[in-house]
């Protein structure tokens, strides 16, 4: 869950999986999958960033060695990839 601020200054925890979309008009209005609308002080980009950071924290806790594994996989792929030229593309 991400912590956001209502217009009256009260904090609210929002399940970011339930956010259908966010729009600025001029306040940020979040529309949830349930149809409920929330107006918050944070900008759309701040809500997106908070949701992204929340997801990253979930993935880090679920797979703490992910960064090392992904770096090793990227290095392996780069090492074993065949070079392509402009003419090789379909």
Produce a short descriptive summary.
The chain is α+β, with helices and mostly antiparallel strands. The chain has helices spanning 44-62, 66-80, and strands spanning 2-5, 11-14, 19-24, 28-32, 37-40.
What is the terminal-to-terminal distance? 44 Å
- Give the strand order, joined by hyphens, for the main sheet: 3-4-5
| Count of individual beta strands | 5
Overall spatial form: elongated
Extract low-pLDDT stretches: none
Domain module tally: 1
Number of DSSP helical runs? 2
Helical/strand content category = alpha+beta
Rg over CA atoms, rounded to whole Å, is: 20 Å
- Work out the helicity level: 25-40%
SSE string:
EEEEEHH
Largest β-sheet summary: 3 strands, antiparallel
Mean pLDDT: 87
Explain how this protein is built.
- This protein has 90 residues and is α+β, with helices and mostly antiparallel strands.
- The protein has one domain (2-80).
- It has 2 helices and 5 strands.
- The strands form 2 sheets. It has a 3-stranded antiparallel sheet, with no helix packed on it. A two-stranded antiparallel ribbon has the order 1-2.
- Strand 3 (19-24) and strand 4 form a beta hairpin.
- The chain is elongated and about 55 Å long.
- The mean pLDDT is 87.
